[in-house]
Amino acid sequence: MAENYDFDELYANTYTEADRQAFEQQPTSDKKFLAAWALSIVLGLTGAERFYLGRPVTALVKLLFTLAGTILLILEQPVYGLLGVTVAGAWTVIDLLLILTGTLRDRLDRRLSGYQRFVGPCAAVTALAVVGAMGLALIIGSSLAVGG
């Protein structure tokens, strides 16, 4: 079946000059991409990037998941506590991906300024941070199993 398709034609010119010009003509926000990305990396569980982008309702919901999960963990309710923190953590990872892809914009749906300039380095740092966190989790998990 694949022999019936001309893949060179299918994938040729998928991002044209007209696409680039249309992207550059979109309105740009006064909100900075680098600030939104940094807030998501450092304070993502608190919804800080959503507060910054002018999305207070979803930011508060995200913050409530984090606070509720933390309080429940303190009160020794690990199942529900971990559920709340896990939901907030997954939401943070999704927000980070949305910021890196340019999909999460300000409340007026304008693209963040500095996106084209900083997206590459920020994506690289994010990938290194994820690999580092996974390595750290592996080390901690292994040492807990051995020390057990």
TrEMBL record:
Compartments in which it is found: Membrane
Any single Pfam family the record assigns to this protein: TM2
Membrane topology: Multi-pass membrane protein
Keywords for this protein: Glycoprotein, Membrane, Signal, Transmembrane, Transmembrane helix
Main location: membrane
Superkingdom in the source lineage: Bacteria
Keyword Calcium in record: no
Keyword Membrane belongs to the record: yes
PANTHER family recorded: BETA-AMYLOID BINDING PROTEIN-RELATED, TM2 DOMAIN-CONTAINING PROTEIN 3
Name by which UniProt lists this protein: TM2 domain-containing protein
